[in-house]
Amino acid sequence: MRSRNMYGFILSLPSLLALLVGLSLTAAMSYFSNKQQERDAHARFAQEAQFIAQTVRRTFEQNRAAAELWFRMSGARPESEDAATDATRVFLQGFPNINTIEHLVIAKSADESRHFSVTDINSLQSLTLNDIKRVTELPELQPAFDEAWRSGETIATPVTRINSQNPAYRGEVRYIRRVNDTLIAISFDLEHSLKAAIADYKPEGFTLSVFDLMRYASDPLVKLVLPQDGEENIKKRKSWLYSDTLDLPERQWLLRITPNQAFHDQTNNRYTLTLFISGAIISILLSLLLARPTRKSGETDSEAEGF
């Protein structure tokens, strides 16, 4: 009889059923709660990623608009050299993403492998003559310079890293256009442009990557992890990936946004875990209440047998 009292709770059918039903309901509620939390987090990710993509697109459109404005300004003759310098200074202050402005005076080359050569350079930033010549001589940039010279339209070049010797520098893209007998090239810092796009919004929990689809489809031109010490790509499924194309003249880039660990920490409110623990405790207490009458009955029988 003593062993029956010791194990009565485990062998009690009502208490066992109450425990199983309670834990099953708790598990089901926790599962659906977790799914709802994940749907809410995904909806927030999609909404914020779309907004980030719009701001990035707007920034790159502003870069191109700035280049087009300078091309038009370059076609007009300034009243004096001082007036031109003042206008340039004001222009550059209004567009901090600009790295350099290069005016390349072109002469036809006798070498058939090159359609032109640079005979004079007026760089409005500190870029050496050799650096700018190296830009025009890069094989991957030659088609862009040729097309700009021939068509008179604005052309975007592939990304180069001529403007800085810093290993962490992510490179620049140039908008080039022919104005009279001069090719004008305006370069924009990629990483600075991307950071400027989100400077006011300051999102956290996202990884932004920009790809040149015409060259490096698997190698991003620039990547930002927000915050900088965040862990990347905790969500590998395709539904946790936002992509948008950025159309540049004669080029196409891809902006890819994914959530990282910081986003997970922000959206994980521990509600599901709290729900499961609370439900499990209630189920155990209910089963104990149902087991008490059975245990007392056993103790009464033992006392009766003792007499």
Structural overview:
With 307 residues, the protein is of the alpha+beta class. The protein is built from nine helices and nine strands. The strands form two sheets. The protein has a five-stranded antiparallel beta sheet with strand order 2-1-5-4-3, sandwiched between helices. The protein has a four-stranded antiparallel beta sheet with strand order 7-6-9-8. A hairpin with a 7-residue loop joins strand 1 and strand 2 (116-123).
Blueprint of the fold:
Layout: H1 2-6, H2 8-11, H3 13-75, H4 81-94, E1 98-108, E2 116-123, H5 129-137, H6 142-151, E3 155-156, E4 172-179, E5 182-189, H7 190-197, E6 206-212, E7 222-226, E8 242-248, E9 251-259, H8 261-267, H9 271-306
Antiparallel strand pairs: 1-2, 1-5, 3-4, 4-5, 6-7, 6-9, 8-9
Helix pairs in contact: 3-7, 3-9
Give a short overview.
Keywords: Membrane, Transmembrane, Transmembrane helix. This protein has 307 residues and is an alpha+beta fold.
What labels describe this entry?
Beta-Lactamase; 51% helix; alpha+beta; membrane; 9 strands; 21% strand; 9 helices; transmembrane helix; disordered N terminus; transmembrane; 5-stranded antiparallel beta sheet; 307 residues; single chain; 4-stranded antiparallel beta sheet
